[in-house]
Amino acid sequence: MLREELPRVREAALAWRNGLAALLAALLGFGLIKGRSDIGQLERGWSVAVGWLLLLSLLIGAAGALALLHAAHGRPRVISLEEMLPGQLADHDEARRAARRLRQGIVMTLACTALLVAAVAATWYGPEKGTAQLRVSIPGSVVCGTVEEVEAGVARVKTDDGVVSVRLSTVRSMTAVADCPKA
User: Fold this and answer.
1) Domain check: are 149 and 63 in the same one?
2) How many helices and strands (H and E) does the chain possess?
């Protein structure tokens, strides 16, 4: 039984590595196809959160991949003569380490997957960055909205009530605002 332990753990590690890699490939393909392609379209707080989720996902995914590789192929080191154990004990000790790294790799890869899902969900459901609004004071009224076009000294401002033409020579003041006041 001890003789088969290390090869069995290594086989399991290879199977898990391949299965988790396929899961991540499918998730990335799904996220790249369905997610918002430019996080700059999100409100600032949401775009920063997506960036952090992606960074954490990358770091945890890399650590998980290394743990799975370690479990599947062993440690890249030479054992000193003082550390050397008899054959079956050495295999058992290595099987224990490989199994522990396999469990760590599985947990980290699933955490990476959860973080990727959260990042894609944030791009789907996060609020879009608002367009800049302009509050224009002219004699007799105030116009607030987004400027669609400026031509021949006339600005076309899109408001909640429709498009309003404003002659620039009559403008008393202009102020950029986050939101126009609701009438």
Assistant:
1) no
2) 3, 5
